[in-house]
Amino acid sequence: MHTEKKHIWGTLDPFYESGAVLGRKVANARFMDFLLQADPFDEYHFFLQSDVSARAQRETLERMAPKIAARGGFSVMDRRELPSMMASVDYHCFHQSDCMTLQPHLARLRNARSKRIFPITGVTHSLSYADYGRLFLQHLWPGATPRDCIVSTSAAGVAAVENHLDSLRDGYGLSDMPGPCVHRIPLGIDPQTFEPGSSRSDDPCSILVFGRISHYSKMDLLPLMRAMHRLFSDGLDPASVRLVLAGWVEDNDDYTPVLKELAANIGLELVIHARPSESEKTAIFQEADIFVSIADNPQETFGITVVEAGAFGLPAVVSDYDGYKDLVEQGLTGLRVPVIGPATTEEADIMAPFTFDNHYHLLLAQQTAVEIPALAKALGRLIADPDLRRSMGNAARERVCERFSWPFVIEQYVALWDELNRRPVNEAALRHIPHPGQVRFARVFGHYPTRRLTPDMVLTAGRTGQGLYRGRDFPLLYAGLERVIDPEVLKHMVFLARKNVTVAEMVKRLARLDPPLAEGRAEYHVLWALKHDILELTASD
Hints:
43% helix, six-stranded parallel β-sheet, Rossmann fold
């Protein structure tokens, strides 16, 4: 009887995280919401680090996708189950909510233990942190395959990842070292949750900046103030426009007072909404006429607020920078303002390992210039033309709904996983390639013991082992070892050791069990049995 193969999706991450609301967390949670809504897989396996996180994940999944839970489509397991599950389950793919942590090490485990070399993908978020050179380096190793993929959210992000990898290859002499492929899939939104405002007035024209109000980790807004001052000097009536800043503001922030003072000096009406709620955010967007985001900081990779502004039917004036190049279609959904960047960043390069993130990001941002004359011209054009604002806003919403909705994003992921599965790999050649970033404990610390286990050592049953065989004793397993040590295998080992047997023969015989014991796990059983007097070496050894 033919049984159709199950499609099983796996991950080491919960995707649903508690704690402070961050863009990364929101994006990961929405990805999971819409993956489960599309439900393209038969089962979803989560391997988490603790019972507490596993329990919370089960409750969340049952609440978010009760139909999948009802059919038994979720399995939430301890990460220590990974080797046995990979050996027994034919996974379609694994996907990580961040490519910076465990993706290459998961590939090493897959290569060694899995039934098949399935795709492993991980997504990028910010790409500009100083320790990312070290983290990207772990992706370059002989066991990387064409089925391993880093997903970046923008074309600029794809190029940044490739530049990271190329720089590491050049610097470490790894010109021929394989690494993962890089593929672009954007972040998404649910357009149904964004309703354009219906009662916008044309006077005054409301210009909105929404996001983190920070000159060192998002964008410097002083050029926007200078552009507005330029417009006023050229004859624009200050009463015809107001600037609204909304989003995250740090406690005891000294940046917003500077903005307030400068706005007052040039006669610009400035409204600041600090940390608005979701309902307040909606009202703020619906009351706006133009959205502005002049990112100048490499910490920004995509620009979800630009997509949200488009969903609200707003035209955007943005810097021609990072992922914004993908999001605003010049002259159709908004206007992109030219940016001049540095030819060298040596000061930030050298100092970044020694300083806080905000220190070197500020250094980088302050040598990235959004052209103020072009910014003033773009703003003036939209301020003066309500019909153009409306036509661009309508085009922006249509484009967002078509290209940046979460269902369309999930379709792209599913297509990517299918395509990666079709790429050829030499599975046999990958099985025994160690990852250079992993500590090989036996190699590093092998000189600590008196001697190492060798195939020619001769084993016999120990006193405790004899008692175990007769049912008069039993093994004592510490918590966590139940996934490694099998008491039934121990009994079989004692039976084999009634007569002297070499380690090589013992390992060979254990490989014939049903299920068979892999060589490494068999040797672990031998050493554990020696440690606990279940086996002992003969006098000659």
